[in-house]
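Consider the following input, taken from an annotated entry for ArsA family ATPase (Nakamurella leprariae).
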Amino acid sequence: MDLAALLTDRATKVVVTCGSGGVGKTTTAAALALWAADAGRKVAVLTIDPARRLAQSLGLDELDNDPRRVELPADTDTDTSGELWAMMLDSRRTFDEMVAAHSTPERAEQIYGNPFYQSISTSFSGTQEYMAMEKLGKLAGTGQYDLIVVDTPPSRSALDFLDAPQRMSAFLDGRMIRLLASPGRGVLKVVGAGLTLFTRAVTAVIGGQMLADAAKFVQLFEDMFGGFRTRAEATYQLLRRPGTSFVIVAIPEPDALREAAYFTDRLQAERMPLAGLVLNRTHPPATDLTVAATEQLQQRLATGPDGDPQDELLAGLLSVHAERATTRDAELRMRRRFQRQHPGLPVREVPALPSDAHDLEALRTVGAALAGPVPVGPTPA
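Applying the prediction step yields:
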């Protein structure tokens, strides 16, 4: 996978990293964004993961819902015209901003104070994913950034934003919503009468006040529903356009590669532009010695009736190498198995670092492993 060509191509506008938890996805997203900024592009990196790792790696105290510029130390080997901006999604604030942008101040205040709105804006299934699409669409629509890198939540929920438009449309077009929005036959009227079996059953489960709050919310929000669907669908199409690329991140372990296989199959089924797989934290051997050759050398070192080696330092080094070579053999078997299931999918390996990437220098090391040296001079137009 030629990530350098992908990141320097001015036609590339969005890169989405996805993968299970604990595979280095956030670090990968930050390293790709930093690499592209060093190459002269104006980049925004958006994390949906509530962990603080991205802010710490970029040398910021915290991230919020607005992009913050990351101060990049001057480097004569990179294009100083690049910029890096970072933010972390706040789904409630994004929801509030969307309400403010598409309603009057008076109506917005009524919506903010509605208990049903307060509930769905923070805990309704799919709200975070929908708001991630809303924020991505808004960032892309400003035209302020050459490239947007999106770091998605861990595990399979990382692809829930692909379902967000359909899920939200199904919710907004559902029978309950239509009933709540109907001024003549709405639930407010039904609840007030207290006559129907339906009303008694629903009230027993969620309470009459919640039902009334929901009805009031829908009536306040009704004229925004169409805009919800339109913007979500527009962002979904943005994800399918040639200027977008998905990068799956995994580590050479069975569970992570099973998740990577799920992501690959899902993205290919959705016909999303898939760039390839980053296989993170691999263990390439320090020498070309095989496991068998290492064991032979260890046997030759052993002398005397007790079998103790003459050279303890060399014996220790051979033992470490034998363990690493065994690990590498297992990694290669898992990689070959994955590639047999997904032939033709490009793979980029990134060796394990001695410690986590916690600053810009470490992120540049990861970026170099991902994409190679940053090109000197401005990126091609």
